Amino acid sequence: MSTQLFHHALYIVEHACKGCTHCMKRCPTQAIRIAKGKARIDNGLCIECGQCMAVCPNNAIAIEQDSLSQLESYTTRVAIVPAVFFAQFDDSVTLGQIITTLYALGFTHLYLAETGVDILTVLEAKDQSSSLPLISNFCPSVQRLIQVRFPLLVGNLSTLRSPAQVTAMFARSELKTLADGLGVFYFSPCAAKIAQFKTEGSEEHRLFDGIINFDTAYNLVCAYLAKHKEAVQEETRAFSFPVCTRKALRWSLVKGQSSNHSGRCLAVDEMHNVIEFLEILEDQQDTNLQFLELDACAEGCVGGILTVRNRFLATERLRHWSSTVPKQLDQNLCERILRHKSAFYKNLNLEPAAPLEVLGLDTDHAKALQKLRKAERILAALPGIDCGLCGSPSCKALAEDIAKSQASIRQCVVLKLKSAKDLNSLARIWGERSIAADGLKDDQA
To answer: What are the backbone dihedrals phi and psi of residue 117, each rounded to the nearest 5 degrees, phi first?
Structure first.
């Protein structure tokens, strides 16, 4: 997916943004700047983790979403739904009621996304990446973080397909006689998966015809149940693939993946914790770890930005549900998977991810070195208090922006308050035209 133009699902709601800097200070990749009182997202640096949206007090950051009306374009409508979605409801709403409601909303087939975990197990899929520690590619936000900020670790990323991809392939194989009117849709708990699925040329874009946000689907289910709960209670339907195993249901929770790998494994959740650990890993390659499970969201996918329920309560319901399912699939279900083995032949691993060169000061190494030295000199002149009033997340970020001619040293409020004259002197040093006391440039005063 590294060669495609990456699609971005997060966007700024201009009229609601007050330039408060909450998002800028929270962003783990420093992808946000404040310009003319409004937040701006650098698409090259954004990894779609949703941290900015989580802390925005003005609802000024939103995620694009598709309408459910897209279902009308297809006669066979398949939903690939993560188990986390069902954990968004409290115990008063049964699993059967949620499933029946989703059918009533227009879907003809429902598959748990985690069914892909069992399919990979039955097919004895092997990861082609050999670098250790192997880093899970399950979280697209973490994968993009590594491509952007930790390029030396890209070779450690798993190449095995995600469970949702595998489930979509299986569903298409099972329903190939209905291929003409077949549409496959994914329910997403976060912005990163939406961005990944909508990036043209990506495997997700090829396998899925649409994507539905968790919160939208949740509201639709609740609204339907409020009107038709008695009718839903009388008719309970099931998944198209009736059951998945305990380990599959827990896959999207913290330690859901690492607990099923042999050798020494580690699970790290929440983006800032992930970054801290990756910095350690990049400096100390020899960790004796065989597998790393890294989740951008706290507690895993239950903490996704589009989830609606407290992540701890959602985790408890999902764990309780997992305790009611078998540890292994029965023979009939295994044989059902094996009948479609040819659909996965030599197709369970993806092309290795590639680094994305977006963090450098310049693509030309000589110019980059010059700009680095310039940024260091500018940084030495800045106050170093990282107040954010300039519209950059830190003094270092402002210095680099100035070196790249994307900002002005006059944006530093602290220097401006100290001495406007000294600020003009510094501006001339960095090649900017000074401004006189009345706001005109020197040659206009």
So the answer is: -65, -45
Structure pTM?
Answer: 0.86
pLDDT value, residue 277 = 94
- Do 78 and 103 contact (CB within 8 A), yes or no? no
Of 199, 59, 183, residue with least CA distance to 140: 199
pLDDT by residue (tens digit) across 41-52?
998 889 999 999
Residue 189 burial (CB < 10 Å; 0-12/13-18/19+)? buried
C-alpha distances in Å from residue 249, one per residue of 37, 215, 241, 400: 45, 20, 14, 45
Euclidean distance between CA atoms 138 and 8, whole angstroms = 18
CA distance 45 to 295: 18
How far apart (Å, rounded) are the C-alpha atoms in residues 386 and 393?
7
How confident is the model over 11-53, as pLDDT tens digits?
A: 999 999 999 999 999 998 899 999 999 999 998 889 999 999 9
Q: Are 58 and 17 in contact (CB under 8 A)?
A: yes
Q: Which residue bears the tokens 């065989």?
A: 290
Torsion on CA atoms 421, 422, 423, 424, rounded to nearest 10: 60
For each of the domains in the chain, give its residue range(s) and CATH number, in order of start. 10-63 (3.30.70.20), 68-344 (no CATH), 365-429 (1.10.15.40)
